[in-house]
Amino acid sequence: MFWLFVSHSSKAQTKEFYLTLENHVFTPSELKVPADKKVKLIIFNKDMVAEEFDSFDLNREKVLFPKRKSTIFIGPLKPGNYEYFGEYHPNSARGVIVVEVKDAN
Predict the structure, then answer these.
(1) 16-47, pLDDT tens digit by residue?
(2) Residues near 75 by Cβ (< 8 Å), separated by ≥ 6?
(3) Superfamily for 15-100?
(4) What is the 3-state secondary structure (H, E, C) of 50-95?
(5) Whole-Å CA distances, 55 to 6, 11, 21, 87
(6) What is the pLDDT of residues 62-75, one digit of tens each?
(7) Rounded to an integer, what distance in angstroms lies between the CA atom of residue 78 and that of residue 39?
(8) Burial class for 40, CB neighbours closer than 10 Å (0-12, 13-18, 19+)
(9) Whose C-alpha in 4, 9, 28, 37 is 20 to 30 A from the C-alpha of 72?
(10) Measured distance CA(100)–CA(78) in Å, rounded
């Protein structure tokens, strides 16, 4: 009997995008990601206190522990603006994910 094992490593790689939280401010405050693709959002909280990433638009919330990286998967999303904020510092910890279609050129 002959067995053939095939490994499919051609699985599409999820693109990573990065945010930093420092002094209760997300940087960059506007992050552009591609439309119709699942993306991995990696957030590094440089502050000494926890924050909670909240987005009604993205239907996501996650505690961002101090001095740690956190991962949130979003998408695939249609083109548009998706706002997010820090629940504990909503006046300063704010941002927007801008989902856009890339030109084929």
Answers:
(1) 999 999 999 999 999 999 999 999 999 999 99
(2) 33, 36, 37, 38, 39, 99
(3) Cupredoxins -  blue copper proteins (2.60.40.420)
(4) CEEEEECCCCEEEEECCCEEEEEEECCCCCEEEEEEECCCCCCCEE
(5) 40, 29, 15, 9
(6) 999 999 999 999 99
(7) 13
(8) middle
(9) 9
(10) 8
DSSP 8-class letter at 13: P
Q: What pTM does this model have? A: 0.84
Whole-number Å distance between alpha carbons of 101 and 10: 23
Take residue 6 and report the two structure tokens written for it.
């095939």
- Cα separation, 65 vs 47, in Å, equals 9
Q: Please state, in angstroms and rounded to a whole number, the distance separating the CA atoms of residues 38 and 48.
A: 30
